[in-house]
Amino acid sequence: MGVAIRTAGEDDRELVVRLLDEAFQDDPVSGWVFPDPAHRRTTHPGLMAAFLDIVLAEGRVGLAEDGTACALWLSVPADAHPENEGDEADAAQGDDAARMREAVDPDNERVELIARLTAGIHPSGRAHEYLWMIGVAPDSQGRGLGTALVQHVLDRCDREGVAAYLEATSLRSRTLYERLGFALLDRPLELPDGPRMWPMWREPQI
Fold first, then answer.
1. 79-96 burial string, b = 16+ CB within 10 Å, else e?
2. Per DSSP, which regions of 25-89 are E strands?
3. How many whole angstroms separate alpha carbon 163 and alpha carbon 142?
């Protein structure tokens, strides 16, 4: 399926936040972070906005031209998390997680915890493209939009010999990513009293 894709900018912020919010309201991890549905409806958009602002500043957002799907990518250099930084790197990541919690939902420790846990399993030592999030509008799912958005970047990864990484948040998404060449990197991340997340890695296919 041909999908017209462009890079989103600041003018698209409201559209992309709404799209991510709709796409992830019923996601297992979002449900764990915000267990109460009423609270999730009001607070979840703020978390999506916080994620988006980071990627608009530091990465890029692929957006289907019709506004029905988006993908948030960060380019991670090989020295992004040097092993010799140790406690200093952990402290910096913890500060970032704490700031996000304070900005989004100060009384909700899971906002901070999810950031710490995913940072803790993120691979280091090799440059890669990190698919942070991909969202498809609920009434547009099943049309191949997500696959097209991911493959758009994977094609470039293959041309440039760059690996890719993500965390799948459901068995369904894990299966999709496996079809695109990703493989389980390590054992799943078990969220406390919550669902699993699957760290997945893809070598460039040349």
1. ebbeeeeeeebeeebeee
2. 60-64, 69-76
3. 26
Q: Tell me the one-letter amino acid at 43.
A: T
Q: Please give the helix or strand (H or E) that residue 7 lies within, else none.
A: strand 5-7
Question: What own/partner pairs with CB < 8 Å and gap ≥ 24 does 136-139 have?
Answer: 136/23, 136/68, 136/69, 137/19, 137/22, 137/23, 137/68, 137/69, 138/22, 138/23
Lookup: tokens for 41: 């409806």
Residue 29 is encoded by which pair of tokens?
């991890």
Coil/strand/helix, residue 60: strand
pLDDT digit string (tens) for 120-137?
999 999 999 999 999 999
At 41-53, the pLDDT tens digits run 999 999 999 999 9
The model carries a pTM of: 0.90
Q: Percentage helix, strand, coil, to 5, in the chain?
A: 50, 20, 30
Can you read off the two tokens belonging to residue 71?
């993908």
